[in-house]
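Pasting two entries for a bug report.
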Amino acid sequence: MASASLQFFAFILALFGVFGDITATLLPNWKVNADVGSNIITAITQMQGLWMDCTWYSTGMFSCTLKYSVLSLPVYIQAARTTMVLSCILSAFGICITTVGMKCTKLGGDSDSKSHACFAGGVCFVLAGIFGLVPTSWYTREIISSFLDQTIPESSKHEPGGAVYTGFISAGFLLIAGVIFCTSCFKRQQGAWIYPPKEHHFPSTEQESNAGYNLKDYV
């Protein structure tokens, strides 16, 4: 029962991780630049994401421009696009597989099949967490290095946006969920290896008595 509850807790964490991963991938605020002019009416907030760049004006207007050209983008943005999409796909596969492999569900067949499915789903979550952690770390490093560069003007410097923090948290959730699923299945298999089922040996006294009885019949 404790293992089933732990798996259910890991599944909830994985759901939050999947939703956060998809949200971070689509959000346009991976880095934010707040440029305030001389008049409060001209204050704008520029946001840059993986797929589009948006500008929010203090008047309430909001405009976005899609990044159509892939080759013109920096390498870290291209890598972030690829790894975040892979993270979303792997985490979605992990949700489907662990739904079959969890103890609290009636899918997946016998206990060995459910254990293998649970372990495979945990591996998917771990890989999804790694794929989500790499681009957010790389993107944050580029923002910090650009912010500390003295040759770049103040108006062109950016700070990490909400999508980066969402990506970090989602990657952590996926990693924790994957580790829980893998270790829970490993403990169950390890227990089967350490304590193998006992074989029952029945005494052969009855056979010996029958054999003796048959020999006496022939005397």
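Entry 2 (this is the one that rendered wrong in the viewer):
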Amino acid sequence: TTAFTCVFQCFPCEPTCLSASWSSPEFALRPVAPMVKMTRSKTFQAYLPTCHRTYSCIHCRAHLANHDELISKSFQGSQGRAYLFNSVVNVGCGPAEERVLLTGLHAVADIYCENCKTTLGWKYEHAFESSQKYKEGKYIIELAHMIKDNGWE
């Protein structure tokens, strides 16, 4: 038999025993090996290409946005300067709520890093003024929560 087949046939048994099965009494009386505690590794839902300039979460380095998705660097967040992006990755979205911002009334939803759960900024769900409609579906990330990665000089 192959090693692969042997692993499946002998898994419940000790290497010297070839006859015990899961339901046999001798298997039930065998000492159980201690459980190994598994820790959750920090994996992200999406990785951006390393050949592009990217922005990452300053707290856990999860990728957030590709530089090509940047619309504007001239935005104000609740904690200082912020950038407006077309799309982002590895972020979760809270419930939408109406807020009066510097440019008027908007329906926005806070966004947070899916890896470390830090609030990063918000998503524009709806703009009530026609001049602000271009923001709908776009994302604000505050500079205080992101770092430049990959290819910045």
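Dev reply: Rendering is fixed now. As a check, the viewer should reflect this: Strands lie at 54-57, 63-66, 70-77, 80-85, 91-101, 104-113, 119-127, 139-142, 146-149.
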